[in-house]
Specification:
Layout: E1 3-6, E2 11-14, E3 20-25, H1 28-41, E4 48-51, E5 57-58, E6 64-67, H2 78-91, H3 93-113, H4 130-137, H5 148-163, E7 167-171, H6 179-192, E8 195-200, E9 211-215
Parallel strand pairs: 3-8, 3-9, 6-7, 7-8
Antiparallel strand pairs: 1-2, 1-4, 4-5
């Protein structure tokens, strides 16, 4: 069981039986400070805390991804690419190591043939590693989408597969998607096994979401 607690609001909810929910924050000042906290330091935030069944606090960055703006989503962000490269290195360890060894040998042969017309001595320090090889390949995630909802789900699916992130927190998601698009997105996320949390800056409900919570201007749960 994972329990989510939003500080200051005295809001808590078990996430084990939830696949989607809206949390409406009517207090505008709190909404913006809340989103800034999530966006800038979500691995060690004060706004949201996660606890397991033994009441041990969990590391947020292992469980959720904050998406303050869907237009700022980048499937090729640093964390996704690092996770992708880690998987590639693990699945192709022997092949990559053999190539790296041969490359180092070839570089050493080249270094021995280099010389200067002057008598200035020089030496080389060759240490070509697997990270250098993958960097040269400029590996990135290919993303082909035809709509905004497909773009969002592609980001969620890729991030889940690479980093096992299970909770995705959006801001004002309803402003950008039609009801049928939201329904499609949430159904796909249920099938995938991830949770969608939409933080809204106004009092709003949507029947497609499993739960709708409202925190009024006094941060009281309605």
């Amino acid at each position: 069981m994972i329990r989510m607690v939003i500080n200051d609001c005295k809001f808590e909810q078990s996430l084990d039986e939830i696949n989607s929910m809206i949390i409406s924050l009517e207090n505008k000042k709190y909404f913006y400070s809340f989103m800034i906290d999530l966006q800038l330091s979500y691995s060690e935030i004060n706004s949201i805390k996660l606890f397991d069944e033994r009441e041990k606090e969990l590391k947020n960055s292992d469980y959720f991804e904050v998406i303050p703006s869907i237009f700022g989503m980048d499937v090729n962000n640093k964390k996704n690419i690092n996770a992708l490269l880690k998987i590639i290195k693990s699945d192709n360890k022997e092949f990559i190591q053999n190539y790296v060894n041969k490359t180092n040998e070839n570089l050493e042969m080249i270094a021995k043939t280099l010389n200067l017309e002057s008598e200035i001595p020089f030496e080389t320090d060759i240490d070509f590693i697997d990270d250098d090889l993958l960097k040269m390949l400029n590996i990135h995630i290919k993303q082909e989408t035809n709509s905004l909802v497909e773009l969002i789900f592609s980001y969620i699916k890729t991030t889940f597969e690479l980093r096992k992130i299970k909770i995705f927190i959006f801001a004002n998601l309803i402003d950008y998607l039609e009801d049928e698009e939201i329904s499609l997105l949430l159904k796909n996320c249920v099938f995938l096994g991830v949770i969608i949390i939409d933080i809204e800056s106004k009092n709003i409900k949507n029947p497609n979401f499993q739960f709708n919570f409202i925190l009024d201007k006094s941060l009281c749960l309605i």
